[in-house]
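Structure first, sequence second, as always.
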């Protein structure tokens, strides 16, 4: 009888708690090779990100998350290997080589709404039809079988989805993995101290990783912040105003079911109100966009989105650069973009304002903005990011079509004294929106 030799691909589940897939591998395999891809990229990324960027904050947070997972695996006698590739086709080849080199019989990889990941899995299946695949939804509240509809019949609006899913019980949290099979290779594993560098994030004291994420969740629910969440969540620059759970959800350092578990515990002790409900409401939004990405696949990145008519936008290189550099005629937009460059984070309200400006005031192809966010946000999530950009561009799930914000009115509502704009230097010296035309020829007065 052949030895069961497994590969575990960590993607959006960089944790030991509530990781049903890893727990299955721990009891089903006799030997295990744990790895993750540093980043999966395609020609699409290079096309829609035509400038050099500084994504140090995002990379550092992820490095800390991977480093903490690495240490947790070491304590269980395992090792973590980083695989660096320049394209998804290279990822297919690298994974195929691992299957052959280790004579792997099984592959464990969480389901994802990422078209990139699913492409690599499909191609690996073609190359290795005898490889036994193990899949589950490790980053969501629900498994596919929990849904009261087929994924292809996903409701066309979040409201329809929410009404159906609020009637479904959220599954319980899986037990934490406490033992693992021995590694097949200890050479070239990440060093034990990987990811332990001092953080340079402007958000002081914020680190990536499972332990840091769980600590943040516990601390949040140890305060009364959840009781006023709905009232404070739209503030532009107050760390305690919103939960910030998205930072650790993005890499799977914390599971959404764990957050719900802590929320229910808080409500039993302190009572439930509209604000505590709104925390679950936001998690359901994230859930909706996950299944939205699963349903529409590559259409998540299409100019027309899921609609039949393309938006009336184009691409002006100079306007795009003004937006990125925080030098538009709109101070609140500039401040938000400067905040993103410095910290790798922007409030939910800020994201709506800068995306609305990008599409409506600047008239730009929404995919360039979405791709920039993809590479800058610490809490980048493929479904939430691209689904929300489609929503704002009028090519997504919003039944009302275009969603345009009055930037002056929004500034008065959320920064009436100009504190946020001054802090993040939003009053750029920009006398005109355009100094060149759409093909970069100077505009003559």
């Amino acid at each position: 009888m052949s030895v069961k030799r497994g590969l575990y691909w960590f993607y959006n589940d960089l944790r030991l708690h509530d990781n049903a897939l890893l727990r299955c591998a721990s009891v089903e395999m006799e030997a295990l090779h744990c790895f993750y891809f540093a980043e999966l990229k395609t020609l699409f990324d290079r096309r829609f990100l035509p400038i050099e960027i500084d994504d140090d904050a995002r990379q550092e947070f992820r490095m800390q998350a991977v480093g903490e997972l690495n240490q947790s695996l070491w304590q269980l006698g395992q090792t973590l290997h980083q695989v660096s590739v320049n394209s998804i086709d290279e990822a297919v080849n690298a994974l195929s080589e691992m299957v052959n080199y280790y004579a792997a019989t099984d592959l464990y990889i969480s389901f994802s709404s990422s078209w990139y990941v699913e492409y690599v899995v499909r191609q690996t299946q073609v190359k290795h039809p005898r490889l036994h695949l193990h899949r589950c939804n490790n980053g969501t509240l629900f498994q596919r079988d929990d849904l009261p509809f087929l994924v292809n019949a996903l409701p066309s609006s979040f409201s329809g989805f929410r009404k159906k899913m609020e009637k479904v019980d959220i599954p319980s949290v899986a037990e934490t993995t406490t033992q693992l099979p021995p590694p097949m290779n200890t050479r070239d594993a990440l060093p034990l101290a990987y990811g332990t560098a001092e953080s340079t994030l402007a958000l002081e004291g914020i680190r990536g990783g499972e332990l840091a994420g769980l600590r943040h969740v516990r601390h949040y629910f140890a305060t009364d912040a959840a009781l006023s969440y709905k009232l404070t969540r739209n503030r532009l620059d107050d760390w305690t105003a919103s939960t910030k759970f998205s930072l650790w959800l993005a890499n799977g350092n914390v599971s959404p079911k764990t957050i719900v578990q802590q929320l229910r515990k808080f409500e039993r002790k302190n009572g439930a109100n509209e604000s505590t409900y709104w925390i679950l409401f936001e998690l359901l939004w994230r859930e909706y966009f996950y299944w939205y990405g699963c349903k529409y696949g590559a259409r998540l990145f299409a100019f027309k989105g899921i609609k039949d008519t393309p938006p009336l936008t184009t691409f002006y290189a100079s306007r795009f650069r003004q937006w990125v550099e925080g030098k538009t005629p709109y101070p609140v937009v500039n401040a938000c973009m400067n905040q993103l460059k410095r910290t790798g984070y922007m409030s939910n309200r800020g994201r709506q304002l800068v995306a609305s400006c990008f599409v409506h005031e600047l008239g730009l192809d929404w995919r360039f903005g979405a791709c920039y966010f993809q590479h800058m946000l610490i809490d980048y999530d493929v479904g939430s990011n691209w689904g929300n950009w489609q929503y704002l561009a009028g090519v997504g799930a919003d039944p009302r079509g275009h969603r345009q914000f009055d930037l002056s009115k929004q500034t008065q509502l959320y920064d009436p004294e100009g504190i946020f704009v001054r802090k993040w230097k939003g009053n750029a010296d920009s006398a005109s929106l355009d100094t060149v035309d759409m093909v970069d020829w100077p505009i003559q007065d």
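Margin note: Residues 274-296 form the longest helix (23 residues).
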